[in-house]
Amino acid sequence: xxxxxxxxxxxxxxxNRMNSVIESLETGLMMVDRDGLIKVVNHAFGSMFGLPVDQxxxxxxxxxxxxxNLSPLLLESMxxxxxxxxxxPLFYPQERIVEANLTPIQExxxxxxxxxxxxxxxxxxxxxxxxKDFVANVSHELKTPLxxxxxxxxxxxxxxxxxxxxxxxxLQIIYKEGLRLQRLVADLLDLSKIxxxxxxxxxxxxxxxxxxxxxxxxxxxxxxxxxxxLLTDVxxxxxxxxxxxxxxxxxxxxxxxxxxxxxxxxxTVKVKQDDPYWIVQVMDTGxxxxxxxxxxxxxxxxxxxxxxxxxxxxxxxxxxIVKHLVELQxxxxxxxxxxGKGSVFTVRFPLEYSEV
Length: 356
Ligand SMILES: Nc1ncnc2c1ncn2[C@@H]1O[C@H](COP(=O)(O)OP(=O)(O)OP(=O)(O)O)[C@@H](O)[C@H]1O
Ligand SMILES: [Mg+2]
Prior knowledge:
It catalyses: ATP + protein L-histidine = ADP + protein N-phospho-L-histidine. Keywords: ATP-binding, Cell membrane, Kinase, Membrane, Nucleotide-binding, Phosphoprotein, Transferase, Two-component regulatory system. With about 350 residues, this protein is of the alpha+beta class. It contains eleven helices and twelve strands. The chain has three domains: about 5-120, Beta-Lactamase; about 120-200, Helix Hairpins; about 200-355, Histidine kinase-like ATPase, C-terminal domain (Heat Shock Protein 90, 2-Layer Sandwich), CATH 3.30.565.10. It has helices spanning about 5-25, 45-50, 55, 60-65, 70-80, 120-155, 165-195, 210-225, 245-260, 305-310, 320-330, and strands spanning about 30-35, 40, 85-90, 95-105, 110-120, 205, 230-235, 240, 265-275, 275-285, 330-340, 340-350. The relative contact order is 0.07.
């Protein structure tokens, strides 16, 4: 037969187990009895509200929750004996959005208290906002060129085509906007592939000088047409990299340097070793980026000057793609820039990924 001692220690064990479970929860949990006295409260709850859980046990919930306008809710749930759900913002100790679930508990057909569970929805709501913004941005970006294609085609059909000069001019606009759409869709597909990690990384040991040389070759004519000087200062490094990725990163950074540097300016590509990294820098003497915009230029569709970027055919996705490609290879990217003087984009790749 089980002794009293055995029973007590089994009970103690079960209580300890229950306490560990409650403490390990990421959701905030509180339990009050029918008089509103706090019987259980976990640390997640404390850190969510910035409250001292050790002092809360045995106190009335009102002492701690009235500041959050929660007391009437607890009262309502207890009085009506119904669960209550509500989403609310918290401003202290951190800005968060939390969901509160209040569930009355019954014992022997009698109301014996309330369990209150708080879930942190901040990250979830933030993602939802990002998705909404993204859809709104994409729709807008698609609508602009489409409107102009449809508009100019209509005007041509309505008779403008009979004048050869107008006809040519309008067709050129339609062609240009068509190209924009094509680029936009290609960039979006690229981005979504990279984001969903569908791009396999293929690391080879390659000469950086060769990769830079290849990219520079493809851009040199456009640079010359804009009377830009292109300088390279590339250390003779053999590093492990995904060549296509690095090429695309360079292409995008150089295209920006070119687009945002006025005629007569200078663009420099520098590659050097700086243990434990190898570093690629693209510098220009262009228009620069205001400090307040600098943290945002890697966001999808973010452009400092929409009109200027649109004129150069930009979709605002270039740097977002670059950032993802850099991160795929465990690198980091940062920008330093002064308005009117120029910008420096620095990409840092860990050498451990490139050791032979
Ligand atoms: N070298 C630079 N000098 C000045 N501004 C820059 C430079 N690089 C980027 N920017 C700013 O950052 C914004 C975002 O650049 P990003 O490359 O993502 O888009 P984009 O060049 O407008 O379009 P695209 O998708 O064709 O690259 C640009 O619109 C521009 O305002
Ligand atoms: Mg760009």
